[in-house]
Amino acid sequence: MDSFWSALLEALHLVITLDSDLLEIIGLSMQVTITAVSIACLIGLPIGAAVAAFRFPGRTFLAVLLNAMMGLPPVVVGLLVYLTLSASGPLGPLGLLYTPTAMIIAQTVLVTPIVAALTRQVIEDLNTEYAEQFASMGVRAADRLAALLWDGRYALMTVALAGFGRAIAEVGAVIIVGGNINHVTRVMTTTIALETSKGNLQLALALGFILLVIAFAVNAAVMALRASAVRTAYA
Q1: Lowest CB count within 10 Å: 52, 120, 153, 189, which one?
Q2: Predicted confidence band at 235 (pLDDT cuts at 50, 70, 90)?
Q3: What gap in Å lies between CA 158 and CA 92, rounded to an integer?
């Protein structure tokens, strides 16, 4: 029990004093995650909105595929990205394996289906609500899609935050393609796993505390956005 409280106090000391190693790990984690989620949104938002708003052959299959891919096993994604970026893989000459770029690619692959599937649900509901109005006004397809995305902006922000929460907590895929190299590819989740196995609970607890704070902040932001959307709808 004494060792637990000692480790906890040392962890709090690392956080309060803004330990340089701690800040480096947090900074890389945020850089990788924000970049991956931004790319995932650029890809997933248009795909999800198009599947929701338009009718085309294979639409139902694509919708089912997006929902199924929300549950992609991280270690499988990590393995596939590893094989793609390895020396014998198609992108091996680029030398991306065991770099932050490889970790961004893995997180993007994981988050994009989540963003696309959740976007489809949001936009499909709005499209059903406004379908008759769009038809009576003769709104073009591109303008209709833009209007739906704008009207659903608050809900779509929560989609992006959901993707962020998924990415920041990822460990399986990023440790496979990143290698958890000190000062190069070490992020919060992989460091917690490594330091716990080494018995260095101080750093692991400090990073765990930061992850909990981030999770709380993301959920608070989601609730605030939903409340703002409700107020806007009834204004």
Answers
A1: 153
A2: low
A3: 36
Q: Which two tokens mark 166? A: 């998924």
Identify the CATH number of the domain in which residue 86 sits.
1.10.3720.10
Q: Note down the domain range covering 215.
A: 6-234
Is residue 97 within 8 A of residue 174, CB to CB? The reply is: no
Kindly report, residue by residue over 104-138, the tens digit of the pLDDT.
999 999 999 999 999 999 888 888 887 778 777 77
Query: Which pTM does this prediction carry?
Result: 0.87
Give SS3 for 212.
helix
Q: How far apart are CA 62 and CA 229, in angstroms?
A: 29
The answer to the question of residue 1 being in a domain is: no
DSSP states along 96-153: -TTSHHHHHHHHHHHHHHHHHHHHHHHHHHHHHHHHHHHHHHT--HHHHHHHHHHHTH
CA angle in degrees (0–180, nearest 5) for 86-88-91: 60
- Buried b vs exposed e over 18-36: b needs ≥16 C-beta within 10 Å? ebeebeebbebbeebbebb
Please give the tally of structural domains in the chain.
Answer: 1
Distance from C-alpha of 162 to C-alpha of 219, rounded to nearest angstrom: 9
Tens of pLDDT, residue by residue over 5-54, are 677 777 777 788 878 888 899 999 999 999 999 999 999 999 998 898 88
